[in-house]
Amino acid sequence: MTRNPGDATIELRLANGAQLFNTLDPFPFSEGDISADAERYIVEWAQDLPKDAPIAITIHLPAPQTAGPPGPDLATALTGWFAAKARSEGHTLREHFRDGRRAFLIGFAGLALCLGISFALTKAFDGPFARIVQESLVIIGWVVIWRPAEMFLYDWLPLLRRQRLYRRLAEARVTVKTVTPGSP
């Protein structure tokens, strides 16, 4: 990987363009799946790049051995793949908040029920055992609401971070360079 001022570049040196694609995919080009190893490599490098710099991806390929039909459009394949991943993360984020709202309603009802029972026990009974049951119900009520609160406070941040990274990769400038044998 090289870093020029204001530029965040990920460099890939491949034996051929097919290395980027899932070998089991029946459509191995612009509509196909990027291999898990290639995606992981690109994403890991992108995570280390400056967050405010545009990303450039440079793919180094050997010169073709024979004159034939042009190879796959690697730039379209990569940017399209990461655009789809960004849309998928957006969908996951929306589902997360929908599930969080449902969990909050269930948790709030559970908290209200536990506090209501605790209040009723306070009015009806006195003594150390009743006090233990009352405090236990209060604790259980707060535990019931904990997960929904955690969903809204913390769990959405990694989803948003991944979505932003995938968007940056979808907007990356992809350059394919032909490398002659023996050149750096």
Please provide the ordered H/E string of secondary-structure elements: EHEHHE
What is the helical fraction, as a range of percent? 55-70%
* Integer-rounded radius of gyration: 27 Å
- Could you describe the largest sheet, including whether it forms a barrel? 3 strands, parallel
Low-confidence stretches: 65-69
SS class: mainly alpha
* SS summary, helix count: 3
Q: State the total count of DSSP E strands.
A: 3
Question: What is the overall pLDDT average?
Answer: 85
What global shape is seen? Answer: rod-shaped
Query: How large a portion of the residues is in β-strands, by DSSP E?
Result: 5-15%
Q: How widely separated are the two ends?
A: 13 Å
Features:
3 helices
Per-chain topology:
Blueprint lengths: L7 E6 L22 H13 L6 E8 L11 H51 L3 H43 L2 E7 L5
Parallel strand pairs: 1-2, 2-3
How would you portray this structure in words?
The chain is mainly alpha-helical and 184 residues long. 58% of the residues lie in helices and 11% in strands. It contains three helices and three strands; from the N terminus they run βαβααβ. It has helices at 36-48, 74-124, 128-170, and strands at 8-13, 55-62, 173-179. It has a three-stranded parallel beta sheet with strand order 1-2-3, with helices on one face. Helix 2 packs antiparallel against helix 3. The radius of gyration is 27 Å and the shape is rod-shaped.
Summed up:
Helix content is 58%, strand content 11%. The chain is mainly α. The protein is rod-shaped, with a radius of gyration of 27 Å.
